[in-house]
Amino acid sequence: MKKTLAFIMCFTLLMSLYVPTSALDCPLKSNATAKVAFVIDVAEDGANISNDSNIGSNTTLMDTSLKTSTTADGSLSISLQIKDDILKITGTPSAKSSNRQALYFSGLCTNTKYSVVNMEYVDSTSTGMFFSDYCTTTKATSVLKLYLKDETSPTKDYIFIECFDYLYPAFNTMIDKVPTNTVMGAWVAREFKPIDCSSSSYTPYLQTNTQQREYTVTFKEFECPQIHTITLASTANYGNIPVGSHEHFTYTLKIIGKTMSCKDNPSLNSNTESFLHVKSAALTQTTVPNTAFIDTTIDGDVQIISAPTSLSASLAIGIGPLSLSLSSPLSVDDPSHVDLNAQYTIYCNDGSRDEYARTVVAAMDNNYVLSQIGHKFSVEGTIGDFGNVKKSAATHRAKWDITIINAADTSPNATTDDVLAHGIAVAIQ
After folding, report:
1. Phi and psi at residue 389, in whole multiples of 5°?
2. How far is CA 415 from CA 117, 193, 194, 197, 227, in A?
3. Exposed/middle/buried for residue 113 (C-beta within 10 Å: 0-12, 13-18, 19+)
4. From residue 58, how far is each of 130, 134, 148 by CA, in Å?
5. CA 251, CA 363: separation in Å to the nearest integer?
6. What digits encode the pLDDT tens for the residues 153-168?
7. Each residue of 137-164: b (16+ CB within 10 Å) or e?
8. Per-residue model confidence as pLDDT tens digits over 248-281
9. In principle, which of 157, 169, 309, 406 could form an S-S bond with 150, CB 3.0–4.6 Å?
10. Helix residue ranges per DSSP H, 92-205
11. pLDDT cut 90: percent of the chain above it
12. Which residues contact 139 (CB under 8 A, 6 or more apart)?
């Protein structure tokens, strides 16, 4: 009888302490101990940030106490002392990782000396962290990460705060509410320059109606490479040109793949996301002998970053003799801004002076980017035969001049300029 009574009393006490996540009508408060790493004079690419198994001379460690409070909407408030500074950080649940193990917060520190560069709760310890050895030793099963940057320092100084086995009571509720945005956890891409940039090899001006290329940018997250990729495809839809008539040509630059991966941080693995975008795309075309451009228009599915909202481009034209065989584009005039949603037909093809529009450059305006899989920019045009004789196939040359950007870094140096070129065999029949 005494054992039964003791069990009932213990069960009643435990139930009185349990508060369902959905019933956070008042803030839930708790105290916790966190590990802290001060890392000063960080390199531009973050290369001299390591972890607690390889502590550098620019790193100091300490412990601190966190006072936390979780509200009904899942917001997390953290109060702590860092040296002489009393800090209060508020985080609002904003996104989750693709694997649903990481919840990302939009964090704000009341002390403007510090900015919040990363705030996340991971319902696992398979994640990037500074205190990886400590985590292994303690066999922790979850971690709250709070990474701060000292905005007053002339060098890049960071504070990495990690609280292991912290219980965030609203996790299950919030993970179902917030959208997936894995790149929100890729904080090193926002803070540092890449350690490597590369692209897949290809043969320029290969005669093919499809040309693909993958671009890879790698950052360093503690001791692990964080890899972002974007794959582009250029396709040409066209036909041979009838004698004395014309044919329609369409070139499309399209994002066909994006990935992000980090071996030590599976929360950052994604088959559809990365911070790589196409900021500029300009198509240069050169026609085969005896042909010239008659009209041009554009189409696309893009992300608008500023007004105007209708898709537009700049256009430049190179004039040359009709029969000239062109291995490279003609010199073009100064580009002019035009709305190519309306068909552009003001090409001067003057047979009396042997001046024809043999080269055209159409460039997507800088109000737009290609950012997601499926985004594309197309240049559509009509090319006519002005020689009125049959000619065997020659190479119609086209190349995209593109700029790949790290969308998380707005500095001018965070770009990669490249060319994606291919040729197509066009006959006059």
Report:
1. -140, 155
2. 22, 10, 11, 10, 16
3. middle
4. 14, 19, 16
5. 12
6. 999 999 999 999 999 9
7. eeebebbbbbbbbbeeeeebbbbbbbbb
8. 999 999 999 999 999 999 999 999 999 999 999 9
9. 157
10. 132-138, 171-177, 187-191
11. 79
12. none
Q: What are phi and psi of 58, to 5 degrees?
A: -95, 15
pLDDT of 228 > 50? The answer is yes
> What is the Cα–Cα distance from 189 to 171, expressed in whole angstroms?
26
Radius of gyration of the chain from its Cα atoms, rounded to whole angstroms: 29
Structure tokens at 337: 């801004």
* Locus of tokens 């996340």: 120
Hey, what amino acid is at 75?
S
Nearest to 193, CA basis, from 232, 238, 228: 228
Work out the number of other CB atoms within 10 angstroms of the CB of residue 18: 7
- pLDDT at site 307: 72
Q: What is the pLDDT at residue 62?
A: 96
How far, CA to CA in Å, does 236 sit from each of 12, 368, 389, 400, 426? Answer: 72, 22, 25, 12, 12
What mean pLDDT do residues 204-219 have?
94
- List, for residues 70-100, the tens digit of each pLDDT value: 999 999 999 999 988 999 999 999 999 999 9
- DSSP designation for 125: S
Query: Smallest Cα–Cα separation from 423: which of 347, 357, 326?
Result: 326
Contact in structure between 377 and 253 (CB atoms under 8 Å) = yes
Give the pLDDT confidence score for residue 412 in this predicted structure.
64
In the block, tokens 């000063």 appear at 40
**Among 421, 377, 168, which residue's Cα sits nearest to residue 286?**
421
